[in-house]
Protein: Cation diffusion facilitator transporter
Organism: Clostridium tagluense
Amino acid sequence: MLSKFLISKFIKNPEDTTNKKVRVAYGYLGGLVGIIVNLILFITKLIIGILLNSIAVTADAFNNLSDVASSVITILGFKLASKPADKEHPFGHGRLEYISGLIVSFLVILVGFEFIKTSYSRIVNPSKVIFNLIPFILILVSIIFKLWISGFNKTLGKAIKSSALEASSFDALSDVVSSSCVALSLLLSIWIDIPIDGYIGMLVSFFIIYAGFSLIKDTMNPLLGEAPDVNLVKGIQYKLLSYDHITGAHDLVIHNYGPSRCMGSIHAEVPCDISIVEIHEIIDKAEKEISEEFDIHLVIHMDPINTDDEEVNDCRIELLNVLKHFPIIKSIHDFRIVGSGEYKNLIFDAVIDFNPNFTADDESKLGDAINSELTKCCPQYNALMTLDRDYLGVV
């Protein structure tokens, strides 16, 4: 397979995708192949468009030229994103890869709008398109090239989990659609005297613009702070729970500073009566091993939990029975009893699914309802609840 051959030929140790040098090599390879293929397609289609006097073919040719610029920007993005951390950017420059993808997206949209203008002019001032077999075959060949480069970029993007390369794959796939529209306009010109290439060119332009907006969405999401990968979240939580004396994990927060540049923090529940020195050693070991395994800089906060107090354990069971009447609550953590004498407070955090329509007033009503239910079985206790939103569907 050509893709595998190019990867093995031009990338040293291609399996070591966690290595930043290997990652950059993948980006360079994708960009260089994109430049070469799109330059060939641009020159070919431009010649065909001039020979046929077809605005649709010419529009598709300049779309390929914009893809050359996109590939150049992709290479620059990987180059700049690989710069080491400095005083002004202590977490590195990884987000520049996303910004380069954003620039490419706007370039694609700009080209689309330019050809809407050109295509409209051809509709208003039409000229006949003459079908020619050889140029038609060349357009079909270009479709094959674009299908391949789409698959090639997708392979590279998946290997290093690069949204920029995967976006390039989608962009190439949209070019397949646009080139197919051009081929259709040439084919229909055999039977239809009406010059429809302006209309087909308009359709191509809309596909280009649609691809641009789709790319913007893909590149903006990590810049805006999208939710981390669910498998990463589950993996970190399950790994943390495998260590001795760690009985619970919650409040995981992950910040993305670029591909393979993540920083996270998580709370680990530990027995309150264990030696501080002993649990500190365990936490240090967990931080180091989890950070290495998941390629993340992880900080673990310890939450001491009283597991031997009979009153705490009994109250926890009573509270869990009460919360069965409130299916909106998925789990609780940081449970403790505060106060003395006849009345005491049960303090805990409760996890609910993320719901933007769940207001502070709804939270207050939920707390009142829980207390009302708790009073029926344990009138001496008052529940003080803090709500945590589960943004990933993972407790």
